[in-house]
Predict the structure.
Amino acid sequence: AEEVGGGDKEVVREYFNGNGFDRWKKIYGETDDVNKVQLDIRIGHSKTVENVMKLLTEDKSLEGVTVCDAGCGTGLLSIPLAKQGAIVSASDISAAMVAEAQQKAKEELVEGSVVQPKFEVKDLESLDGLYNTVVCLDVLIHYPQNKADAMIAHLASLAEERLILSFAPKTFYYDILKRIGELFPGPSKATRAYLHAEADIERALQKVGWKIKNRGLVTTQFYFSRMIEAVPA
Ligand code: SAM
């Protein structure tokens, strides 16, 4: 069977333009019509976004800093980045996600007061350009490790100063698959969620001359996400 880059990517695209869009839009939204699992994931994910914003703003201002938000989803990171003055290039494989993010940015960012993020429908592999910072949150779950290496190398090649990634750590493998398998695409849904060992991610970064500078971890009952900040070694 083909994986990301072939059939798997099509499955992911279709999922996030269809059922997956409806599910994740709710999870990433603000409405009350979520179940206990979805609410828990919403809270966990918002903690990840909060941690990334803290990391990106603690040393210096984001004013004029170029940021690539790869796999931007509904824009939950792109919008706060733009609020802080970052020049955001946001993209996602799903046109539905990009449309939702664009709509939200229009609602939440006051025209003329900040630079609006530039939204594009694009998969990670076709991203180009050079950015101060590249961020890719909770997307690696759609990449098996053998594809993740190339994906990480590509994202690192787009970043000048830092690369921030978050992924579901393999330490919680059975927990995650058991608890949230139904939230991932594919015919055999649980097998379509790929978890990653931190050591594998670190090795992929080292191979292209990057090293890990900061690590964070968010776990709730149903959400598990390891965040790493990498810089050129
Ligand atoms: N990064 C966003 C956030 O943290 O709010 C969204 C995370 S969501 C779990 C995963 C997103 O990755 C979806 O919007 C999906 O469409 C996108 N995605 C999956 N595979 C992708 C690929 N190959 N290229 C670009 N985006 C992809």
